Amino acid sequence: MVDMGNDWDALLKGEFEKEYYLKLREFLKKEYKSRIIYPDMYDVFNALRFTQYKDVKAVILGQDPYHEEGQAHGLCFSVKKGIEIPPSLVNIYKELKDDMGIEPPAHGHLKEWAKNGVLLLNTCLTVRAHQANSHKGKGWEIFTDKVIELLNERKEPMVFILWGANARSKKAIIKNPAHLVLEGAHPSPLSAYKGFFGGKYFSAANDFLSKFGEPVKWAIEE
Predict the structure, then answer these.
(1) What is the pLDDT of residues 94-147, one digit of tens each?
(2) Looking at 9, 40, 64, 99, which residue is catalytic?
(3) Closest Cα partner for 8 from 167, 154, 166?
(4) CB-CB contact of 37 with 72 (8 Å)
(5) 138: DSSP letter
(6) Is the pLDDT confidence value at 222 over 90?
(7) Catalytic residue at 43?
(8) Bridge pairing between strands 37-38 and 127-128
């Protein structure tokens, strides 16, 4: 049984016993035995472990995990210290600096964002090595739909930041007028200049959140 160790456990109770998830689980068992899969199986649910439901201020929604060795660790767009900062995150840091004047750290570990209420979720939580979108359509989208539905139901306002087509496809689920939806192109070098840069997602999120409580601390310590 999957255990997040926080309030997500009660909210997702029963989800892991549904037919779609049991099929996904069997698929993943075979994949982890026969192929190189990212992230490590113990890191798959880190986004939910790092950020409790009640603490979510903003959701950053990505596509699927990084698919090169040592990169993915369960938080979208994040890599652990010591790993080269991937191009997508370089572009996110560039937009953050242009938007809010925040200097990027020398590493790509976004756990401070997660602990400050930013749920760093991918639409699909696993991937084969070197094969983007290789676990698409296996059931993860149903699971992450459920996560977003639960967040949508929450009364306390939050911001949903949707980057890329996979993430933006979730917009239809977010119907609660209490929340703010911000969307743009994926920050990948292939698409960043086609609608990602200049989106001012970080300042827009904080302008909105400041009306109801504490904004996000986007600056990351070294």
Answers:
(1) 999 999 999 999 999 999 999 999 999 999 999 999 999 999 999 999 999 999
(2) 64
(3) 154
(4) no
(5) S
(6) no
(7) no
(8) antiparallel
CA distance 90 to 95: 9
Residue with tokens 């996979």: 166
DSSP structure string for 113-150: HHHTTEEEEESS--EETTBTTTTTTSSHHHHHHHHHHH
- Eight-class DSSP state of 131: B
DSSP state of 194: G
Give ∠ CA 152-55-99 in degrees, rounded to 5. 85
The 3-state secondary structure of 101-115, one letter per residue: CCCCCCCCCCHHHHH
**Token representation of residue 170:** 């979730």
Rounded Cα gap, residues 30 and 53, in angstroms? 31
Composition of the chain by helix, strand, coil, percent to 5: 40, 10, 50
Q: What per-residue confidence (pLDDT) applies to 221?
A: 84
